[in-house]
Give the backbone structure.
Amino acid sequence: MTATVIRNGRVLDVARRAAEPKDILIDGDTIREVGAAGMPAPAGARAIDATGRMLIPGLVNAHTHGHGSLGKGRGDRANLEMLLNSAPWINGGRNHDDRRLATLLNAAEMVRRGCTGVYDLTWEMPAPSRDGIAAVRSAYEAIGMRAVIAPMLADRTMFEAVPGLMAALPDAARRDVERLGLPPFAGALAVCRDIARGWRGGDRLAFAIAPTIPHHCSDDLLRACGRLAAEHGLRLHTHLAESKVQALTGLRTYGRTLLAHLDALGLVGPGFTGAHAVWLDDDDIRRMVDRGASVAHNPGSNLRLGNGIAPVRRMLDAGLTVGIGSDGSNSSDNQNVVEAMRFASYVSRVRSHDVSQWIGADEAIRMATEGGAAAIGLRGRLGCIAPGYLADIAFLDLDDLAYVPLNDPVNQLVHADDGGSVASVMIGGRMVYDNRRFTTIDLDKLRHEVATAMDRLNAATEPQRAMVKRLEPLVAHFCTCFAATPYHVRRMGTPPYEDN
Ligand SMILES: [Zn+2]
């Protein structure tokens, strides 16, 4: 394997809030040594000059949806249930090449903002297929990004899952949504088992499984996902108590919280990641800590969809592993983990005057690096610039005005930078983005292909768009009323403003 030495970069030290010039020696895809500037390197080592750059561990996006990139900007004043209602339109009509394109576009957005690893929950209607997952995988292989690819599974639509929603619809609308019914899960599960058996990806590309939303899955499906994960060592990821409607649905459907139900079915363990986790109570948090599970915190998406504020301080204080996600562009419109770190820091300050309860910039960085690494199964291998870690490094331009003057690199990365400083990105020792140009993909070609695909998809999904728009006010009205039901934790801003 070729050796690489990165010279004169200022390596971010989060604990010391410093960024001193250091050299980094890399062997193949792994960091071997971090030493003083000018340290010896093997003869013939490739040298990269990082003068004027701050080097940070590649950020990890702990929760997104590659397929969502084609839906950015579709929604504004739409809550989660309205977004789920819109799925047949904004995700509809796709072929496998569309899946590859969407995933590649999403990955390109992430990489250019310093992200090197991702947990991608990918959706294919009506169920995942071998070719669909191969198309998604080929996008990550093309750009050279580290990814966990998890097909989303469900055997109930939202209309079937939310108690009373179907019954509240007028007859014509009910007939519309009845046609959206999902097939039995056995076929999808067999496909996933087949893919899991043949999967080879090392620590670059992993396959996982995502029962998408607990109550959108029958208990039989949830148990089957748990068995499949155990058989093949797969990670499990689900949207967990993301909205108040979901939390209430959990209590109504199971007589216990969503997390307590998943735990009773045996799904919650070290390989389990719950996305959002806004409406977890203290008992849920304790259970997750006890099981060694992790949370993917998506503050931007939670704000955009009005889902409330996740109790991240309580999670961290309890010892829960938390990563940061952008969520899909269907619900948060960009793929910028630098911005997500800032949201994580700022939104924590809404609920308390006590500054000790706020999330610090240092904590936001640790969540977006080490926390995300743990969520994608690479704890201790990714998320630090240190010997033995994978060589995933973002090179930030210290001439960017976010760092002029350089007072505190930790605070400035989270509170001043918008990700625009990212000049180059190395993943596994390979420079995939170099001086603001991709070395692995042709961005102009990608833009053109996306535009062509969207012309076709917009025309093909016009009937679905019309149906979604007919249903939207009905869903909005029902869910707004449902969400007024009391729940035993509050997650909307500061009381007493909740629920008014
Ligand atoms: Zn999501």
